[in-house]
Known about the structure:
Blueprint: H1 3-20, E1 27-30, E2 35-38, H2 43-55
Antiparallel strand pairs: 1-2
Helix pairs in contact: 1-2
Amino acid sequence: MSVESEIRQAIIDELQRQSENSDGQLTVNATDDLVTIHGAVDLDDLVMVVMGSVAGGP
């Protein structure tokens, strides 16, 4: 898996995690090349996930 693919998957996974914890206030629909987001995203959590995927973290 390429670095780009790992970062892409990390972003989608984090957005979906936030969506699941938002009580319906955040919806995320992802396809192979597009993500549609409705609602507030915790940017700090998203940045930490991206940095972790770049650094090789979980």
